[in-house]
Design a protein that fits this description.
This protein is α+β, with helices and mostly antiparallel strands. Helices cover 52% and strands 7% of the residues.
Length: 836
């Protein structure tokens, strides 16, 4: 049957057959007149058979299907439809896949469902015509329905979230239902359909979650809280779908398995594993309870994050006495004065004040490091370690509930504890993770004890009254006096480095390093896509050989404590995918990098601390793995499908280059004179690299050990407190016991509001890999530009390119030629005396 009718003065054509898999080749029409001519010709051919319906006859459902079996030439397109039992949303998803490959004209026509069909079709790069005249106006009214790869960040408002996400979730649910009814245990009939169906949801919810992190507001919080239960429910429907699970098992056990690539097999095996972890094997009351736990955990995680942000924002200390800011660098006083102006103190200056200090890290750390006024250090320290630990915003009961629910969820799945659930999808096992932490602890503890003793002795020699107090230096003294000792030992002041690390120069040098190592260029692309804040930049990554773009990324560099959560992170906007390409080839990956570094002050650019430089390189490493993947299977491209304890490899690898002289020459230029960082300063920086390295190692070991213990040993039945367990662990992992009132756990967002539960050890696990990977460049010769370039390409073609399509240990061995060793990490940390 051929159906043709006008939609907003355009001709729409659908070729429809009650029986499935009808294919018809249609000459590519140049205009509506050509289309009309073709239809009239066709009607004369089939009209005598009684198969042609009249123009403008309403059609309830038209379904594109079996699209991937067709192909087109440059002179023709194919429009494919099959039986009407399949929903338009799924059909349009399939249409988008086919049309993205072939340039076909895909029509998703349904008076009730055409809105989502048109959206999905557009996502696939097809020309979509919808039977509903409201499609374009509704999509324009709600920017979340935008189908492109760059979200309309500048248009998405809190009031768009609920209606937009409800529409998308409802349509994806319908698509899931139809996929379950029609699923085939084949790659095209299962995996490709699933990837196409879930992509729009991932992009839209990802945009909402991102804005929640960088532009938080009460209205946006309320919208997210309303939608989150629907999103969690939909996620559970996918993971607990028996038809999809059985289809994946049948595909694994069926005849097509042998013909699948390694990456495709990893996808299938991962989906089966994740379905089991998602409760697909549960029934009845157990399944109902599991899903209720999922909802509760989602709510609690969001509440934890909100409380932490609110607790950080709540503290503001206004200072009018210059004696209280004595010792603070000019940059810190300028930031405090700028904050004072933002809080209503007009005319505040760095020299005369008033000054406002907060718990935001760019404001907090300079006080702890440089302020000679000890009472202010004590006040800020105690406020920092007690964030979100009292009143309505107390995270303590949330922590207890999260741990209890995670343990109950693990039991429902047949595991002894949440740590075992977490390890089921990682490289390590619980015993191996514990063994690594103990090895690092044993190698570091005695040295850390000596490091603290050295600081205590230095303060005493300097005549510090606090050094003579009972018990010696207090927690709010150690960072201050450790910095003074560092200055004395290495004649290095961190503030002397800042003028050489202006953000623009750092970015240029970092991009130049990427070009030398990985043969890519990074250029500004501002204006090519909307952004969520004026400070945000957009960059394009291209092949240095061909000039063709390979990826894009946003950079949001500065701290905004009123609306932006702390820390630094990278996440994807969209991933690379051949299936979801808009016009042949592959869909290019898009990422965002978010930091919280010192903002520009007045006419000065952002002058970065050296630690902020390392953080920028760290996040760029994450982004490179996402952007430089050559994996065409979208479900394991870039960071997707990479085991969590391996995902920090590229990020920590990139930090090593901050101590490489040619790299420093590229990033360190005085912001006023353009002068390079003097070699004397660079040598001091290198010598100070391992200053208190054992103490820093013990800090990370403590965090990771506490995380594992909370998720494997803690009873979560009220018989003891989480703080008691942390203090018990601290006896082995800390050389200075925490204060009784220390509530660090109330701010441990990584494990209670992030993805690191029973996984914080991953930083050290991956640091073993990253240090060993960098040692390959050391062995090749860091001063040999040709050898560095050759090794860099090998790193790109393995670690950065393969994504989750190959097991990370196999990827590492392909790059390094052997399994990893802890020796490079201990050597880089100045702890090489320990056994490796």
């Amino acid at each position: 049957y051929v159906v043709w009718f006008h939609v907003q003065q355009r001709i729409a054509i659908v070729i429809f057959c009650p029986r499935s898999r009808v294919k018809l080749e249609v000459p590519r029409p140049e205009n509506n007149m050509a289309t009309t001519s073709f239809l009239r010709h066709l009607s004369r051919r089939v009209g005598t058979a009684g198969g042609l319906t009249s123009p403008r006859v309403p059609l309830a459902r038209v379904v594109p299907c079996t699209l991937r079996r067709a192909h087109t030439s440059s002179s023709s397109s194919r429009i494919l439809v099959s039986n009407a039992g399949c929903s338009t949303s799924l059909a349009a998803a399939r249409a988008s896949v086919f049309a993205g490959r072939s340039g076909a004209l895909a029509l998703a026509l349904d008076t009730q469902r055409s809105r989502y069909a048109a959206t999905l079709a557009a996502a696939g790069g097809v020309v979509a015509m919808a039977a509903s005249s409201t499609v374009e106006s509704e999509a324009a009214a709600n920017p979340l329905l935008h189908a492109g790869d760059f979200p309309l960040f500048d248009q998405i408002k809190a009031e768009d979230v609920v209606p937009g996400m409800k529409q998308i979730i409802a349509d994806v649910e319908e698509g899931l239902k139809d996929l379950e009814e029609n699923v085939q245990p084949t790659w095209s009939g299962l995996v490709e359909s699933l990837e196409a169906l879930t992509d729009k949801l991932a992009k839209s919810w990802g945009a909402v979650s991102h804005l929640k992190a960088v532009k938080d507001s009460e209205a946006l919080r309320n919208a997210v809280e309303e939608i989150q239960p629907l999103q969690v429910t939909l996620s559970s429907k996918f993971s607990q779908s028996q038809p999809l699970y059985q289809a994946f098992v049948a595909l694994r056990d069926g005849p097509q398995w042998a013909s699948l690539t390694e990456a495709q097999k990893r996808i299938v095996e991962g989906e089966i594993r994740d379905a089991m972890l998602g409760g697909v094997g549960l029934e009845g009351e157990a399944k109902e309870r599991f899903n209720k736990i999922q909802q509760e955990l989602s709510k609690l995680s969001t509440k934890f994050s909100n409380n932490l942000l609110d607790g950080t924002k709540a503290f503001k200390r206004t200072i009018t006495d210059p004696a209280e800011v004595a010792g603070l660098p000019e940059s810190a006083k300028a930031l405090a004065a700028q904050t004072a102006v933002a809080n209503g103190h007009e005319g505040a200056t760095a020299e005369a004040g008033p000054w406002v200090v907060t718990l935001d890290f760019p404001a907090y750390l300079p006080v702890m490091t440089h302020c000679t006024h000890r009472p202010l250090r004590e006040e800020l320290y105690k406020a920092f370690i007690s964030r979100a630990s009292s009143g309505e915003g107390d995270n303590t009961p949330i922590i207890e509930s999260i741990l209890r629910l995670r343990k109950e969820k693990a039991a429902l799945l047949g595991y002894a504890n949440h740590a075992e659930v977490s390890m089921a999808s990682k490289m390590a096992t619980l015993p191996k993770a514990q063994d690594l932490l103990e090895e690092l602890r044993a190698a570091s503890y005695d040295t850390a004890v000596k490091e603290l003793a050295d600081v205590q002795a230095f303060a005493a020699k300097a005549g510090a009254a606090e050094a003579a107090e009972e018990g010696g230096l207090k927690h709010w003294d150690v960072t201050f006096w450790a910095e003074r000792l560092k200055e004395a030992q290495y004649d290095l002041k961190e503030e002397e480095l800042r003028p050489y690390f202006a953000l623009p120069a750092v970015m240029d040098g970092m991009f130049a390093l990427a070009q030398r190592l990985f043969q890519i260029t990074v250029t500004p692309a501002d204006g090519e896509a909307p952004v969520w804040h004026p400070d945000v930049r957009l960059y394009k990554v291209s092949s240095a050989k061909t000039g063709e773009p390979v990826a894009y990324f946003y950079l949001d560099p500065y701290s905004r404590p009123a609306e932006k959560r702390g820390g630094a992170w990278m996440d994807e906007v969209v991933g690379r995918s051949k299936l979801l390409a808009t016009s042949g080839g592959v869909r290019l990956p898009v990422a965002h990098m978010v930091c919280n570094q010192s903002p520009p002050i007045g006419e000065m650019p952002s002058l970065m601390t050296f630690r902020e430089v390392e953080t920028m390189f760290h996040e760029f490493g994450h982004a490179l793995q996402h952007m430089l993947t050559t994996q065409d299977e979208g479900m394991v491209a870039g960071i997707r499908g990479v085991e969590w304890d391996a995902v920090e490899l590229p990020s920590q690898f990139m930090e090593n280059w901050c101590y490489h002289r040619p790299t420093i020459d590229g990033i360190a230029k005085h912001y006023e004179t353009g002068a390079a960082l003097p070699d004397e300063l660079f040598q001091k920086l290198v010598k100070a690299r391992n200053y208190r390295a054992a103490s820093m190692m013990m800090r990370q070991v403590h965090f990771a050990s506490t995380d594992l213990a909370l998720h494997s040993e803690y009873a979560a039945d009220g018989s003891s407190s989480v703080y008691a367990l942390e203090r018990e662990i601290a006896q082995k992992t800390m050389v200075m016991m925490p204060l009784e009132e220390d509530r660090f756990l109330c701010g441990f967002g990584h494990i209670f509001a992030g993805g690191y539960s029973a996984g914080y050890y991953s930083y050290k696990w991956a640091e073993v890999l990253s240090a060993d990977a960098f040692s390959a460049f050391e062995e090749a010769g860091l001063d040999d530009a040709s050898a560095v370039a050759t090794t860099g390409l090998r790193f790109r073609d393995t670690v950065l390119a393969m994504g989750g399509g190959k097991a990370p240990m196999d990827v590492f061995k392909e790059f390094r030629g052997r399994e990893p060793s802890t020796e490079p990490l201990l050597r880089h940390s100045g702890l090489v005396g320990a056994s490796a």
